[in-house]
Structure formats: C-alpha cells, structure tokens
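Students often ask why inverse folding is considered easier than folding. One informal answer: many sequences map to the same fold, so there is more than one right answer. In these notes we will look at a single instance of the problem. The structure comes first.
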C-alpha cells in the first residue's frame, strides 16, 4: 500500500512524491511557491488529487498571506497546470470560504477531500456494474492508460476504482497497462497499485496498446479524465485517443471513469480545452541527438462519439 497521496499535517501539505515512484518517499509543502513547483513537476498529479492540492493550497495561503493577497495566490495555484479542471474547482471551493477565515478555508478543503473518497467508491461501483452489463459476468480483460488510481485521487481512484470494485467480486482476469510515455505513470504508478491490489497485469509500450486491442486481447478500455467538456469530449493523458479509436474499431466498450467535478459545463467541446505542453526535454531525454526538437503535449482529446459511457459518482452518461 502506498502512503496517502495528499494530507494536511500540522499546517503543511504532506505529499507522496510521485516523481520518485516506485520508490516511496513523501515531501512536505509549506508555501504556495513550493506547492506550485510540486504541481508543475507532478509530485502531485491526477485530476482529483490536483483538486485536493488546489484546495489545501488555498488553506495554506489563507494562513500565511494577508487577506487581500489571497485571491492572487489562489489564482497562481489554479494556473500551475491548465488541463485538469479539478485544480481550479478545488481552488474555487476553498476560496469561497475565505470570508469566514483560515479555519473555514481548511474545513472546506477537507470536505472536498472527504467527498473524493465517497466519489471514487461510487464511480468504482457504477463502472464495475456497467462493465458487467456490457461484457457479461466472466472475468474481464481490461486496458487502462496513465494512472487513474489512488495516487491520482484522495480515494481509491477512478478507472482503478472500477478495476478494484470488479476485482473484489472476482471480475478481473488481467489489466493491460500502458507505460505512458514520457513520464511513465503506467509503469511507475499503475503497476504498483495493481500489484498491491493483487490484480494480474501486463505492462505494454504505448504504441502496442491499439494492436493489443485489435488482436482481441482486451474486453474493455477504462480510463480517467482531466476535463470533460459539456458535449462529452474527454481530455485525458496523451495516448488515450488511440485506445478509443482501436476500441471503436474492435467494437469493445470505451469507458471514462471520473468524478462529476471533472465535467466542465463552461467548456463547450474538446477544441476549447487547453492542452498542457510540457518541457521537450521530457521526450528528448538523453537519447535524442543534440539539437533535436520535440513536441510534448501532455493530454489528448477523445471525441464524445468514441466514448461508450462516462461513469461519474452521480450518473452514467452516454454522450
Ligand atoms: O499528467 P498527469 O499524470 O497528471 O495525468 C493524469 C491523467 O491523465 C489521469 O488519467 C487523469 O488525471 C485522471 S486521474 C483519476
């Protein structure tokens, strides 16, 4: 079991350092500058965990900066990464309590975190029930991308919450997990979580995913989301879209599992979602020849028509 992804401990934010996984180490954040840096470096990552980080960040700021500076500090936290809507949702929720003082801001952040625990459970149960309905009662061969597990949330995870709920009733044969270049959230984090759950799994390079689906080795794809537009277009980790295309071609379900807070009614469609462009160095590493350039979009958009269902804590939505 990994330590908690994020917690409030003695006036500081305690984070599982996800840049170091599978080596387990935690880090403590005491200032907004440190938090913004941790978010940018993916020390804390995954949409629901970013929501918690945003809310606790405002709680931290409320204790350390003058009241008239709080809104600017909150805006700085919300802007640390652009794609996952939960970051700004978390910041907004905590900031809304600011008039009642720092304790009220912290209380709002802690409520948001408690809600994520319930939400993950609900998403997991709903997604597991839907997969059984769509695919039948035999143990399933699932495919996932990036990490939408406990490390990405306060609770048990969204896509991996579905896996956990199914596994609890003997409903998982194996999970295919993409490595998830360039930062390897699949290899470094999802594989750890699946191992801790006792779920049989196979890691594959990202490029193998679609052909594994085409070869009939997978019954359904289940992924998380960073932002879901009003029309049902889904932004998630780069490499999700090819899985959706392959799933549609193979005629298997493509499920998105996310809290309702990831649905952003203010974003009409996928084209309006800002896709984070990260440091080309993450792609080039030390292997590309000196002078090469790279593109490093961190997310892609899967159009709603490729999504079989979006499962949230509140509903099953077939966009
Ligand atoms: O760049 P990351 O690691 O923050 O990206 C995470 C993802 O894309 C997850 O799939 C998404 O946030 C859902 S987490 C429950």
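Output (designed amino acids):
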């Amino acid at each position: 079991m990994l330590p908690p992804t994020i917690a409030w401990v003695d006036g500081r934010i305690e984070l599982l350092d996800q840049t170091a996984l599978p080596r387990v180490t935690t880090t403590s954040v005491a200032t907004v500058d440190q938090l913004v840096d941790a978010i940018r470096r993916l020390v804390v990552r995954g949409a629901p965990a970013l929501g918690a980080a945003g809310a606790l960040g405002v709680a931290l700021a409320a204790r350390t900066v003058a009241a008239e500076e709080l809104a600017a500090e909150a805006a700085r936290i919300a802007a640390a990464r652009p794609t996952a809507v939960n970051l700004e949702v978390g910041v907004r929720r905590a900031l809304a309590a600011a008039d009642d003082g720092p304790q009220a801001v912290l209380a709002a952040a802690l409520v948001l975190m408690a809600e994520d625990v319930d939400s993950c459970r609900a998403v997991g149960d709903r997604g597991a029930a839907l997969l059984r309905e769509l695919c039948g009662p035999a143990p399933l061969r699932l495919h996932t991308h990036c990490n939408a597990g406990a490390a990405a949330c306060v609770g048990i995870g969204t896509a991996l919450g579905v896996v956990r709920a199914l596994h609890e009733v003997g409903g998982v044969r194996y999970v295919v997990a993409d490595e998830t270049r360039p930062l390897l959230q699949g290899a470094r984090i999802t594989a750890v979580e699946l191992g801790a759950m006792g779920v049989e799994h196979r890691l594959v390079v990202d490029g193998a995913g679609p052909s594994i689906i085409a070869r009939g080795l997978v019954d359904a794809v289940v992924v998380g989301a960073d932002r879901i537009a009003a029309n049902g277009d889904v932004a998630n980790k780069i490499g999700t879209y090819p899985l959706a295309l392959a799933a549609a071609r193979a005629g298997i379900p493509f499920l998105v599992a996310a809290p309702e807070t990831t649905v952003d009614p203010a974003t009409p469609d996928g084209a309006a979602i800002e896709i984070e462009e990260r440091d080309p160095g993450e792609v080039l590493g030390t292997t590309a020849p000196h002078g090469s350039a790279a593109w490093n979009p961190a997310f892609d958009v899967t159009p709603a028509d490729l999504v079989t269902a979006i499962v949230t804590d509140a509903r099953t939505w077939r966009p």
